[in-house]
Amino acid sequence: MAVLERHLSLYRRLFWASALSSFVLPVLFLVSIGIGVGGYVGELGGVSYLQWIVPGVMASTAFQMAIGETTYPVLGDFKWSRGYHAMRATPVRIGDMVAGQVLFMVVRVLPQTVVFLLVVVAFGGLRSWWSVVTPLVCAAVVVASALPVMGFSARIDNDGYFALLFRFVMIPMTLFSGVFFPVAQLPVVAQWLAWVSPLWHGVELCRAATLGVAPPWPIWAHLSCLVAWTVAGGWFAMRGFARRLAV
Question: Which among 36, 76, 109, 124 has most CB atoms closer than 10 A?
Answer without folding.
Answer: 109
